[in-house]
């Protein structure tokens, strides 16, 4: 079986870690039992470009249980857990092409290797798989019946493609499901990002000034967790509505030009490029710590920082120190890549349970309906979203009320007024 991983000897350690993650993923466990009976992906080749974590490993097992021929590559050069990659190859016979720390050429070679299998369904996190298909392997587009996209950045790219009329097949925006972004983006990103920062630096957040750039669901989560550890949180935004929400949530809102002067920690979660730039670096205090939790490593203008610095060194694992001409030092975590995956382990399993339940059920939906679905970006079918919420509550032992017949009539009528 073709594969490219760091060391197959890590397989047993990886299997144990996948099993540990699975214990907190009861929704996906229930879907696996359904898939074993129904085999909704029977005979379908599925190429996945995702962060190769323990939770992803569990998803791959479930997709294979549903009948899919699965291949997996990394969606970020620093997010792979090498023992998980080895375990999937050795114990689950799933071709994996992912090595933590791989260079750009290897990263894209791995994407091409999963595409060599001529997949019928794509599963993406950031849309690099889809963009490679459309730019370099257009001859395969006619074979694709559908796909799914995991994250905000990928959905933005796909919607741009759809608006320009170049998206060649239907893709479900898994990120837009309520059971994904309201929980994964907020609670998952919030906890795992702060976890990555603390692991990388071992610095105390209490009493520090923590600047969060971007107040989408990920930014909300990071701000909430940083504040929970005692940091003074400043939010920077370009959207007036989100800025107003941040104010109402109790945070200080200011332009980055002002925040740069007083921040101790800076975390970008915008999905845009060069949020932190040369003019900001020049204003930062000595020892400022910069990190990114957006999908791509473009949110911090690292090329400008490298060009400006008079010296740079890896002062600690995952921490690179840059010395500026003014003598101050700026520390960048994890090369400006996803700090929650590069310096920690990514989102906790219990929140990824819902995200990957969406992925599994949406892949099955595309296998059955993709041929009859128009090209473009579509939302997760509401019945899937609500079913995942129901299953999660059930797994947590939580019951909720149901409407009485009288209440249903009232909600569906216009005659019953005050």
Automatic annotation (TrEMBL):
It is an enzyme of class 3 (hydrolase). InterPro entries: Adenosylhomocyst_ase-like_sf, Adenosylhomocysteinase-like, Ado_hCys_hydrolase_NAD-bd, NAD(P)-bd_dom_sf, S-Ado-L-homoCys_hydrolase_CS. It comes from Desulfoglaeba alkanexedens ALDC. GO terms for biological process: L-homocysteine biosynthetic process; one-carbon metabolic process; S-adenosylmethionine cycle. Binds 1 NAD(+) per subunit. Its cofactor is NAD(+). It catalyses: S-adenosyl-L-homocysteine + H2O = L-homocysteine + adenosine. This is Adenosylhomocysteinase. GO terms for cellular component: cytosol. Pfam families: AdoHcyase, AdoHcyase_NAD. NAD(+) binds at residues 151-153, 185, 214-221, 237, 293-295, 340, 347. SUPFAM superfamilies: Formate/glycerate dehydrogenase catalytic domain-like (SSF52283), NAD(P)-binding Rossmann-fold domains (SSF51735). Pathway: Amino-acid biosynthesis; L-homocysteine biosynthesis; L-homocysteine from S-adenosyl-L-homocysteine: step 1/1. It is found in: Cytoplasm. Belongs to the adenosylhomocysteinase family. Residues 185-346 form the S-adenosyl-L-homocysteine hydrolase NAD binding domain.
């Amino acid at each position: 079986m073709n594969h490219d991983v760091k060391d197959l000897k890590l397989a047993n350690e990886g299997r144990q870690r996948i099993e540990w993650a699975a214990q907190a993923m009861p929704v996906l466990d229930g879907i696996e039992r359904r898939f074993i009976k129904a085999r909704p992906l029977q005979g379908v080749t599925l190429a996945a470009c995702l962060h190769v974590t323990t939770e992803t490993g569990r998803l791959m097992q479930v997709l294979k249980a549903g009948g899919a021929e699965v291949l997996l590559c990394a969606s970020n050069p620093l997010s792979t857990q090498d023992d998980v990659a080895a375990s999937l190859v050795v114990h689950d016979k799933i071709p994996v092409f992912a090595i933590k720390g791989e260079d750009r050429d290897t990263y894209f070679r791995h994407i091409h290797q999963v595409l060599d299998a001529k997949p019928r369904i794509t599963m993406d996190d950031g849309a690099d798989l889809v963009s490679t298909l459309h730019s370099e392997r257009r001859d395969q587009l006619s074979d694709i019946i559908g796909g799914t996209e995991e994250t905000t950045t990928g959905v933005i790219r796909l919607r741009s493609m759809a608006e320009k009329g170049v998206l060649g097949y239907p893709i479900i925006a898994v990120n837009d499901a309520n059971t994904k972004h309201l929980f994964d983006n907020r609670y998952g990103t919030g906890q795992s990002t702060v976890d990555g920062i603390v692991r990388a630096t071992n610095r105390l957040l209490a009493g520090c000034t923590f600047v969060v750039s971007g107040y989408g669901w990920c930014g909300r989560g990071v701000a909430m967790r940083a504040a929970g550890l005692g940091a003074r949180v400043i939010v920077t935004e370009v959207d007036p509505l989100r800025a107003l929400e941040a104010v109402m949530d109790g945070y200080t809102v200011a332009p980055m030009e002002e925040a740069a002067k007083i921040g101790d920690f800076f975390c970008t979660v915008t999905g845009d490029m060069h949020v932190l730039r040369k003019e900001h670096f020049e204003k930062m205090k000595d020892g400022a710590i910069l990190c990114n939790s957006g999908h791509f490593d473009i949110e911090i203008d690292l090329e400008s920082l490298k060009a400006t610095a008079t010296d740079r060194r890896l002062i600690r694992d995952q921490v690179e120190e840059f010395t500026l001409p003014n003598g101050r030092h700026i520390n960048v975590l994890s090369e400006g890549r996803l700090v929650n995956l590069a310096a920690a382990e990514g989102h906790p399993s219990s929140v990824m349970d819902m995200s990957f339940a969406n992925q599994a059920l949406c892949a099955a939906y595309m296998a059955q309906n993709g041929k009859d679905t128009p090209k473009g970006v579509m939302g997760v079918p509401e019945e899937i979203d609500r079913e995942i919420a129901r299953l999660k509550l059930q797994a947590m032992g939580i019951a909720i009320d149901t409407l009485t017949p009288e209440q249903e009539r009232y909600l569906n009528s216009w005659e019953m007024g005050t």
